[in-house]
Amino acid sequence: MTTETRTFCRICQGMCGLVATIEDGRVVKVRGDKDNPLTRGFACSKGLASPEFHYGPKRLLRHQRRRSDGTHEPICFDDAIDLVADRLRPIVARHGPRAVAAYVGTQATCNVIYRPLAIDFLRVLGSPSLFTSMTIDQSAKWVTIGRMGSWLAGRQPLKGADVWLLSGVNPMVSMSGWSGNLPAYDPVKQIKEARRAGLKLIVIDPVRTQTAENADLFLQPLPGHDAAIFAALLNIILREGWHDAPFCAAHVAGLDDLARAVAAFDPALVEARAGIRSGQLLHAATMFARDGRRGCAGGGTGPNMADHSNLAEHLIETLNVVCGRVLRAGEPAPRRPVLNPDRPVRAEVRPARREWETGHRGLTGYGTMFGQMMTATLADEILSDAPGAIRALFCVGANPANALPDQRHAVAALGALDLLVTSDVVWSETARLADVVFAVKQPFERPDHTQFLETLGLELPFAQYTPALVEPPADADVVDDWLVYYALAQRLGVTLDLAGPLDMQVTPTSDALLDRLAGGSTVPLSVVKEHPSGAVFDRPAPLVQPARDGRRDRLTIAPPDVIDEVHRCRADIAAPRTVGGRPATHLLVARRERETMNSFGRDLAGTRKRFPRNPAWIGPADAGSLGVAGGDLVRVIAEHDAIIAEVRIDAAVRPGVVSMSHGWGNLPDATDPLVDGASTSRLVARDRAVQAINAMPRLSAIPIRLERAD
Ligand code: SF4
């Protein structure tokens, strides 16, 4: 029997509406759902390949335990839970709860039950050792909130904006609007519609990306100069008086200090060092601050992963702040919750908290942000000899053996644990190292709703519920991912909390937990369920409320550590980039491909057809001077490791730059670059260009030498 069911994709935060064709209990095809009012029929190649991923040969169908020789054997769920609980108790008794850690990755993001329940498991154990992909991704955004504070009403939305500036972010491929301060859904259509309505788009990127193709002004600098570029833009704007002086006078602290510090960034000097055309910085500043009245700047992985990343992100947000690009009292608030409770939105400042100075501190000396430890320190927190070092790690929708910086070091750390547990749908690199692997349901086998999407800046009162579409394959022994932590909590005699304490005697259903999460929703979940394609609910936009009486907090744009970083960035602007004492020939930047998201999607047939491996993309001039053609192999040599990659030539990549996607490769000593691709994380050094506060290493703009691999 063939049926069609409406659902939504849960691979990335786009949560695109899908129509799934189901034959004999299997999802055989999906297409974009034109009736979904948010994504209107769009679905990318990853979403459309969901059935292949769902039933692919790497699907994990049984829980596994590791034998002493490193191979795995099947184990039933109850025995696996007993095994983990039995090994966890002595670790906690001997080393304390902080020796138990969790690493939560991006594949737990679009899963409203799993992520909070796994994190709560750590809480009830009493462990502060929570790591997530956020602190190894765009954690500079959290550093900025921690140092500057934030405007509770939020930034001006894309709708109605006349200018937008994107730096090192390619939403037309990543499909994520979040990092560019864009709406959370369908950024391609939204940018195009905004441009048709008159928006001017400025894009700064070392690669002429698909987003750059839509720009009114495109700056193509050498990577790693984002902080200097934004310092120069601020210098022009403050010098010319194009900032919003009344807003700054009322809500900003440190304007004069910042103006003095960025005065050292002469635009002509920055243009020369960054390799951008003369006059482009003045042009960008004019478009954004003098001629543009409404609209924001946003930075992505480029500025957030390259040199001076914390400063770069701070200055991007400072640009928004000094230009007053925030919502004011009386304006319509863009966020209208549906599955979340309604809360007043206020035109006031939440002050800087600098949690890392006062909260829990890890053995590596780094503090926390939003209750999370810094993921770049995870391997060292495991390998430390000090009491309290991490001895057990739970991986939640994550593949740290592939994702953590300096892959050899990370894999050595994972191998040194007393207990490594992961839950996955496929045999990942981490699963192959794990003591216990829980085989869990694929997205189409579990219900879900879009409550999480609302927290990402959704500008429409949209919500959708999806039922489980199919049962797992008949020969599978897989469980709901959240059940792993519920069952472990039962064995350990602790009570989990999900919107209130859970009944630990009677195991709930996923639907009961979804109901529970939506208990305070503005629109009842039962009403949301009446709309299989999701719906935009008729909820008037509330107005931004004035600040509460007595609230006089300010956005601190120039605290001493930021000013210190501005000076260091200025001193660094002419520093040579070297590899092993020799001048770097190129800078390696992170690349987005539509077909993959981190390590997800690399094994799909469509991906492999287009990219049998992750190429090193270089411009034609660099290919000529190196004497290589597309398909040739090159050695990509960084300071402490090297990888082999296949060359592809792309005129969009500027000279001096190599662009590669991450998430490929295999375990370090098992990688065949012609089969697995190359792991760029092996090139990330843990001991240079590391940011204070978040331990963020340089993941992009990495100095490399490129050689033919004859
Ligand atoms: S952009 Fe692609 S992967 Fe992301 S939710 Fe949409 S279809 Fe899924």
TrEMBL record:
InterPro entries registered for this protein in UniProt: Asp_de-COase-like_dom_sf, MoPterin_dinucl-bd_dom, Mopterin_OxRdtase, Mopterin_OxRdtase_4Fe-4S_dom, Prok_Mopterin_Oxidored
Pfam family, one: Molybdopterin
Keyword Disulfide bond: no
Domain 4Fe-4S Mo/W bis-MGD-type: 2-58
Annotated GO MF terms: iron-sulfur cluster binding; metal ion binding; molybdopterin cofactor binding; oxidoreductase activity
Keyword terms of this UniProt record: Iron, Iron-sulfur, Metal-binding
PROSITE patterns, per database record: 4FE4S_MOW_BIS_MGD (PS51669)
KW Iron-sulfur (keyword) present: yes
Family per record: Belongs to the prokaryotic molybdopterin-containing oxidoreductase family.
Official protein name in the record: 4Fe-4S Mo/W bis-MGD-type domain-containing protein
Native source species: Sphingomonas ginsenosidimutans
